[in-house]
Amino acid sequence: MRRMLLGEMVLDHQRAFRGILTLVFMLLVVSNGWYVYSRSLSLSDQYAHHAVAGLRQHFEKISGFIDTIQAEAVRELQWGEPPRDVDGQLSALRNAPGSNYFSLDQLPPPLSHQQIGNLTGLVLPGKPEASRQREMAVALGLAPMLTAAYRNLDDHGVAWVYYMSGQQFIYLYPFAPAADYHYSLATPSGVFWRMAQPEANPAGKRFMTPVYIDQAGKGAMLTIGQPIVAGGRFYGALYMDVGISTLHQLLGSSGEVLGKLYLLNAQNQIVAANTEEAVPQENLLRLPVMADYRAGPTAHVKVFAVGDSGMRVLHYLPNEVLALEIVKGTAPGIVAALLLWLALSLLNRTWVLNRELRRLSEHDALTGALNHRAFQAVLSQLYQGYRETGQVFALVMVDLDHFKRINDTFGHAVGDEVLKVLVRLARRMLRNQDLVARLGGEEFVLVLPATELRDAMKAAVRLRLQLERLNWAKLGLPGKVTASMGCAVVLASDSKAGAVLKRADDAMYRAKQEGRNRVCVDLQGQPPGVE
């Protein structure tokens, strides 16, 4: 029998093949989609981390200067003597005509306002207290450090650096004329001062104010404040005002980030963003810091911490944006999967056509039995196998009795149906490995691999008996249809494959001569006891 390759066996099971092909296609699409989804989320997370890292570095640099100046201010207030080199600046303080404040609008040479900012405060009745004078000297002594901090932090969006005292004065850099800004009775009502008070901030922690509009015209900003406490006493606070526009630029520096980034302060207020769109849901502003993205019905959300000031970055990634990335990312994979689908479908279709052509070339068109050429190929393989392995096989020649009379009396159409019935019956009664071949006309041969002569004879007898018992009246035949059969088994003396067929044919002719409707066996291969 013809050997089948693995691919042929797979393609022979069409339903299973189509199911596996569909499953493979779906697995390719799903796995590719999951990979693109994970990759898009990971890349977006990296870009968001990059923006957050920029913000952290931004505020860490500001905090570094605040730490240095704070330490120097505490040391001077707690242990140091008032700086001697600021006496000239203190003596230059002048009361504004017709007002209740003083300022340092005029500096003694060789100082300039590029080096020294302005110090303004309320004019108090009587002679200023020594402690107030000393604290103002400390504030002026910090001027070089405040100036250096401003110049180093100018590119970080720092608009003002200043020290404000509980003794009703403020030192401000860069210089602003007192007419533009000065300490007033309303100054302590500002949120930046209230948040520094021991009542609101007993631990003296650094804080950050909500966003507000600068009174000196430098736009929207927030203030980072550090209370100054020395020897257990609250003196005032050191401040740096940070422009919001710089924070917007930092968030927008990671252009590849998917979705929207919002910088939130401790008061859940949006400080800056890389978009002009508002947060889609207000409840998102109250989300805590989280390690992973939280998937919702409309978006993926993650919150990053920025330092220890309570500031956070909210990354809002709409699902439709992520879906679009998945579509763009999976498009090549889907195209490849479709091409694979088409290629395999074409292969399957080609195989089906080839198999049908092969079937037509190997089978009898009327009955579906093997044709003479295919039978000769099978016979040759069986004979070769017998020579190599000793595996015997048997042949049963079948010839319908008086078939010409059926054709002449009832027509060829009825005769064709008789032939079909014979083949269907033989296939139903034989084993799966057995074959039926039509040699021509009403002559057929049963091919029985791995079968001894005794078993071949039994199979032939069962077929003969069942054939004559069929209800042939359904085809319009008045009597029964019978067949004469001859059985032969391959022998060691057979010099060629055709020898087996010749002996089976001879046995079949003896059945004809002995009266038809019977089974005869080849005398050479007849086992003992068989007559």
UniProtKB/TrEMBL annotation:
Q: What is its EC number?
A: 2.7.7.65
Quote the PROSITE patterns the UniProt record gives: GGDEF (PS50887)
Q: Transmembrane residues, as ranges?
A: 20-37
Provide the reaction this enzyme catalyses. Answer: 2 GTP = 3',3'-c-di-GMP + 2 diphosphate
Please state every residue range assigned to the domain named GGDEF: 391-524
Q: Which GO terms describe its molecular function?
A: diguanylate cyclase activity
Q: Which UniProt keywords apply?
A: Membrane, Transmembrane, Transmembrane helix
InterPro entries this protein is in? Diguanylate_Cyclase, GGDEF_dom, Nucleotide_cyclase, Rev_trsase/Diguanyl_cyclase
PANTHER family noted in UniProt: DIGUANYLATE CYCLASE DGCM-RELATED, REGULATORY COMPONENTS OF SENSORY TRANSDUCTION SYSTEM
Q: What is this protein called?
A: diguanylate cyclase
